[in-house]
Amino acid sequence: MLVLLAGIFVVHIATVIMLFVSTIANVWMVSSSSFGTISTGLWLLCNKTCSQLSVKSGDETSLKVVQAFMILSIIFSVVALILFIVQLFTLEKGKRFYMTGAVMLVCWMCILIAVSIYTARFTGKTQYVTNPHHGYCFILAWICFCFSFIIGILYLVLRKK
C-alpha cells in the first residue's frame, strides 16, 4: 500500500509539473513560414523573438477561456496534492481521499474544457504558414488530462484502504 501511495504521489507531482510547463511554454502549435519556424502558445507567438499572441476578435474570448481553465487546472492540481498530504496524516482509514479525488476530477474537467476549446478553435487556423502541427505543450496537456483522471479515480478507490 505504501508503494502504491508513493507511486500515485510521484505521478501527481509529475502531473503538476507538466501542467505548469504546458501552460507557460509557447509551443501549442508549431508551423513553418518564410521567416522560419513559428510556435504559438496560450500567451505568445514566437519566431526568433516572441510577441503578444494576436487572435481574431471572435477568438479572443475563447483564448481567454483556455488560459483561465489551464490556470484553474494548475490550482486544483496543487490543492489536491496538498489535500492528499494532509488527509494522509490526519484522517482515519475509510474517510481519506474523498476530497482529494473530487478536486483532482475537477482538475481533470478543467483540462478537458481547455484543451477541447483550443482544439476546436485554434488548431490549424494560423494564416500564412505551412505544415501546422501540434507542439509538445498541447500533447503534455492531453497527457495531464489522462493522468489527472487516473489519479482522481485512484484516490476515490483508495479511500477504503
TrEMBL record:
Keyword Nucleotide-binding: no
Location(s) in or outside the cell: Membrane
Top-level lineage group: Eukaryota
Stretches assigned to coiled coil: none
UniProt keyword Transmembrane helix present: yes
Single GO cellular component term: plasma membrane
Regions that span the bilayer: 7-29, 65-85, 97-118, 138-158
UniProt topology in membrane: Multi-pass membrane protein
Keywords annotated in UniProt: Glycoprotein, Membrane, Transmembrane, Transmembrane helix
Main location: membrane
Gene3D superfamilies: 1.20.140.150
Assigned protein family: Belongs to the PMP-22/EMP/MP20 family.
Record protein name field: Epithelial membrane protein 1
Species name: Neopipo cinnamomea
Biological classification of the source: Eukaryota, Metazoa, Chordata, Craniata, Vertebrata
